[in-house]
Write a structure and sequence with these properties.
The chain is mainly β. The chain has one helix spanning 20-32, and strands at residues 2-3, 8-9, 42-52, 55-64, 76-80, 87-92. The protein has 2 domains: 1-32, no CATH class; 37-93, no CATH class. It is built from 1 helix and 6 strands.
Amino acid sequence: MGFDGNEVWMESDSTSNGNPEFYYNVMFYFYAMPFVLADDGIIYGDIAPLEFEGTAYPGISISYKEGVGSSSKDEYFIYYNPETYQMAIKWLG
């Protein structure tokens, strides 16, 4: 994968799905989460708490309006500690 200042490119393989722009930015997006989750076109929702090791973690779902970003069909689920409100668990769907 590379960026020549104008275009993103990558060698094709069975995991790339032919979308180099998506892969070019994806690691930043996952690393910076939840801070990048203020983009236009995001839809937030409440989800049922996740029970883990005797603690119920409230959750938030994040999805996107059709056509937003490089992968508008992605969904994210973030669960947070009910006492500290800090993000505790995240799932990428």
